[in-house]
């Protein structure tokens, strides 16, 4: 599961006879890790003086002087503000998760030969996210031998490409039905490309189809 961490810091500088720095750090994370989903840490001149998290659900003082100088009603009000902020941040994280989960781009796929057999190439490009499966089948059965699966490589636009090369004789191509199968999270149904419809890339000649 993808983990998202949002970290926002607010710094307020107050100048009087002396200069003090107030900093409030708001942190929210997705669930599933050993950390509160939402925290607020307040610092005065770098020293923590207030704290809130989604486990305790209370805004509490962290220094003795802060505890003595504020009435109970103050902490009740601060707790309500923190709880409202927590709900707002959770909604933002949920929207981000939904956006990431739906950021998928379908691959463009093709099967071709750079020259005559024995090598046939199945190429997928332009897909996102990175994970993709390219496999070969012979008469409906998976083929594992004589297969060279390349690395997944990045494209300039942030998408990815990958290729798989099948070594097969011209005789086998005539006798059997070979297909390239591509699976990706953007696809409702896998892409199946018959090798019989492959392109032949001949140097100096226009590309042809079988």
TrEMBL record:
| Domain of life of the source | Eukaryota
Q: Can you name the source organism? A: Ameiurus melas
Q: Which UniProt keywords apply?
A: Glycoprotein, Signal
Lineage per the UniProt record = Eukaryota, Metazoa, Chordata, Craniata, Vertebrata
Q: Where is the Ig-like domain?
A: 120-192
Annotated GO CC locations: external side of plasma membrane; extracellular space
Q: What is this protein called?
A: Ig-like domain-containing protein
Q: Which residues form the signal peptide?
A: 1-17
Matching entries from SUPFAM superfamilies are given as:
Immunoglobulin, MHC antigen-recognition domain
Query: Is Glycoprotein given among the entry's keywords?
Result: yes
Gene3D superfamilies the UniProt entry points to: Immunoglobulins (2.60.40.10), MHC class I-like antigen recognition-like (3.30.500.10)
One GO BP on record is:
immune response
Fetch the Pfam families from UniProt.
C1-set, MHC_I
Q: Does the keyword Glycoprotein apply?
A: yes
What InterPro entries does this protein map onto? Answer: Ig-like_dom (IPR007110), Ig-like_dom_sf (IPR036179), Ig-like_fold (IPR013783), Ig_C1-set (IPR003597), MHC_class-I_related (IPR050208), MHC_I-like_Ag-recog (IPR011161), MHC_I-like_Ag-recog_sf (IPR037055), MHC_I/II-like_Ag-recog (IPR011162)
């Amino acid at each position: 599961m993808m983990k998202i961490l949002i970290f926002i810091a607010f710094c307020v500088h107050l100048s009087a006879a002396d200069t003090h720095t107030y900093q409030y750090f708001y942190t929210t994370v997705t669930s599933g890790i050993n950390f509160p989903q939402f925290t607020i840490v307040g610092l005065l001149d770098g020293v923590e003086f207030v704290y809130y998290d989604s486990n305790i659900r209370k805004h509490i003082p962290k220094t003795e002087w802060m505890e003595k100088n504020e009435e109970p009603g103050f902490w009740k009000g601060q707790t309500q503000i923190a709880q409202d902020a927590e709900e707002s941040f959770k909604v933002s994280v949920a929207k981000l998760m939904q956006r990431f989960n739906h950021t998928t781009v379908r691959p463009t796929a093709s099967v071709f030969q750079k020259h005559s057999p024995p090598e046939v190439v199945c190429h997928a490009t332009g897909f996102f996210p990175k994970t993709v499966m390219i496999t070969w089948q012979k008469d409906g059965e998976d083929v594992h031998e004589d297969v060279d699966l390349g690395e997944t490589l990045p494209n300039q636009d942030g998408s990815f490409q990958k290729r798989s090369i099948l070594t097969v004789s011209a005789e086998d191509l005539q006798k059997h039905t070979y297909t390239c199968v591509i699976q990706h999270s953007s696809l409702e149904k896998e892409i199946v490309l018959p090798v019989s419809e492959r392109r032949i890339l001949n140097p100096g000649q226009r590309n042809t189809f079988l």
